[in-house]
């Protein structure tokens, strides 16, 4: 069973209101030796579906026989999380572009440094939970350096980025300290979001992560059967060029969208004009991210993501 459960709260700075800025981690130590698996969420503060899944995972894992150690980081970016923003309001920079961080840098760079020291440098496997925000809804898993681990999550759609292709490589992400520097197995999950009950996404995340832990031998049990999976090598992110009501016209995530079909349109809430019709970019596409309700967007907000089925593999 679990040998010990510990709350780890390393302090990394003092806030101007006098409170300690700390990382919140939960360590579950198994009776048997094995690798440390790190599971993190909400590195972008407005992506809280994964944080909810980690809460549920903790309640299940604490009563399970664990091999090795599981380190849970439910809220990687607390000050952004508290105000449902992507970035910390103190410096408004993307925490997931600041790694390995700097103890004498801006607030987010200090946080990145603490996360590198206390979390990323001590784990042997990284499962990173991202999601849509309270507007767009997303559904895919990245394949980086451990295809089996990514497939074990059980998503129907996976994405293998082509290195050096414009738009797929970002400096300073968590990957720079896990995959690039230490080459530990990494899997990034993008699931959930939208003005919807998150329960189905939370359930899928919990089931998927438990299956990944079985794949790594951290918990006992047989692997769940996989659905038919598609791996795309090309993703297009499409942003509305006009602000207003973004009205979805596309099929559900995971469904095929053919060339010429509309993803959605932007309608003015003021004069009711159609300001923009947004077409899918590929002849043979698959829906990966979209707005499921008529949402207010700014010009340039996250709109849709479509995978290219031409060149996709099983
Ligand atoms: Zn994210």
Automatic annotation (TrEMBL):
Gene3D superfamilies linked: Zn peptidases (3.40.630.10)
Domain Succinylglutamate desuccinylase/Aspartoacylase catalytic positions: 33-214
Protein name per UniProt: Succinylglutamate desuccinylase/Aspartoacylase catalytic domain-containing protein
Cofactor names: Zn(2+)
Xref: SUPFAM superfamilies: Zn-dependent exopeptidases
Swiss-Prot/TrEMBL keywords: Hydrolase, Metal-binding, Zinc
Annotated source species: Devosia subaequoris
Metal-binding among keywords: yes
An example Gene Ontology molecular-function term: metal ion binding
């Amino acid at each position: 069973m679990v040998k010990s459960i510990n709350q780890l709260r390393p302090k990394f700075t003092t806030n101007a209101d006098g409170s300690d800025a700390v990382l919140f981690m939960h360590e579950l130590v198994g009776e048997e030796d094995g690798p440390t698996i790190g599971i993190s969420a909400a590195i972008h503060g407005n992506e809280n579906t994964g944080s909810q899944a980690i809460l549920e995972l903790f309640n299940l894992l604490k009563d399970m026989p664990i091999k090795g150690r599981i380190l849970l980081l439910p809220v990687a970016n607390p000050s952004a999380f508290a105000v449902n923003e992507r970035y910390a309001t103190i410096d408004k920079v993307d925490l997931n572009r600041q790694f390995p961080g700097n103890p004498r840098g801006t607030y987010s760079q200090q946080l990145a440094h603490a996360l590198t020291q206390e979390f990323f440098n001590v784990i042997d496997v990284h499962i990173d939970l991202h999601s849509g925000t309270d507007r767009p809804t997303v559904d895919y898993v990245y394949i980086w350096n451990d295809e089996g681990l990514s497939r074990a999550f059980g998503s129907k759609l996976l994405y293998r980025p082509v290195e050096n292709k414009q738009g797929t490589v970002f400096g300073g992400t968590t990957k720079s300290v896990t995959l690039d520097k230490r080459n530990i197995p990494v899997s990034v999950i993008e699931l959930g979001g939208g003005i919807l009950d998150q329960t189905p996404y939370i359930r899928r995340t919990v089931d998927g992560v438990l299956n990944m832990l079985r794949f790594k031998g951290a918990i006992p049990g047989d692997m769940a059967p996989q659905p038919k999976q598609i791996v795309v090598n090309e993703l297009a992110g499409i942003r509305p060029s006009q602000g207003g009501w973004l009205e979805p016209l596309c099929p559900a995530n995971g469904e095929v969208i053919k060339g010429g079909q509309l993803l959605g349109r932007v309608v003015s809430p003021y004069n009711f004009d159609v300001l923009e019709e947004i077409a899918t970019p590929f002849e043979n596409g698959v829906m990966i991210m979209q707005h499921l309700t008529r949402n207010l967007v700014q010009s340039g907000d996250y709109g849709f993501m479509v995978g290219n089925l031409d060149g996709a593999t099983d």
